[in-house]
Amino acid sequence: MPDARCRRSNCLVHPPEIKLFNSVEDLINAIERQGWSTQPGYLPDADSRRLQQDCEQGCDQGAFKRAGVGRGKGLEVREEIRSDQILWLRPEDATAGQTVYLEKLETLRLALNRSLYLGLQDFDGHFAMYPKGAFYKPHLDRHTGTSERVITVILYLNPDWQPGDGGELKLWTTSGAKTGALEIIEPRLGTLVCFLAGEFWHEVLPAHKTRMSITGWFRSH
Ligand code: OGA
Ligand code: MN
Question: What is the CATH number for 120?
């Protein structure tokens, strides 16, 4: 006899097309109400796994670079602040898996603009790989004096993530404050997290196993 969770993930209760539709609606409602949203199972496992394979392949080929903090001339590697490695997505040579995800984000961007008038113009994102021991200290995603990054969008790519693997996202859920209520988000395959980039403080707790994701931003210019 399968348990309730198996029945849900086999989609006997909610057919997949209804679930996908609902997750966009839920996400938009949550952004409007509280400025952030977590959507487990946002992307079907097969699609997430293709992205995970692209990420692993990029690592194997040595295409990742140590991530920096700041921007433009002020960009510098500061391993005491963040110790992940990144590889920017290039839509012009996206793989089939990346195209599926980017198209889904485009639908989401248009839906956010229609419902919340956010004026989001494009998406810019990168794979991120946190080797064992890597972290990203508390920060906001908007660079000082800029307003391009409006919404942060993170998709996790860790198929067998378990408590003890570390690398959770710690999100302070009071806009503008690094105190008060917290969400601890597990970086499980297919979970999508969004939040207002300039308002929500967040941190990546130390990874105890390699941790993979795609992080990006809906931007306005
Ligand atoms: C970032 C970031 C969070 C995460 O790359 O700016 O905060 O959970 N990532 O990967
Ligand atoms: Mn961040």
Answer: 2.60.120.620
Please state, in angstroms and rounded to a whole number, the distance separating the CA atoms of residues 212 and 210: 7
Residue 1 domain flag: no
Q: Mean pLDDT over residues 193-218, rounded?
A: 98
Cα 165 to middle of ligand 2, angstroms = 20
Q: In 160-211, which residue ranges form alpha helices assigned H by DSSP?
A: none
The alpha carbon of 191 and the centre of ligand 1 are apart by a number of angstroms equal to 13
SS3 17: helix
Range of the domain at 215: 21-67+82-219
Number of structural domains, the chain? Answer: 1
Rounded Cα distance between 67 and 82, Å, is: 7
The pTM of this model reads 0.90
- Residue 154 near residue 192, CB atoms below 8 Å: yes
Number of helices followed by number of strands (H, E) in the chain: 4, 11
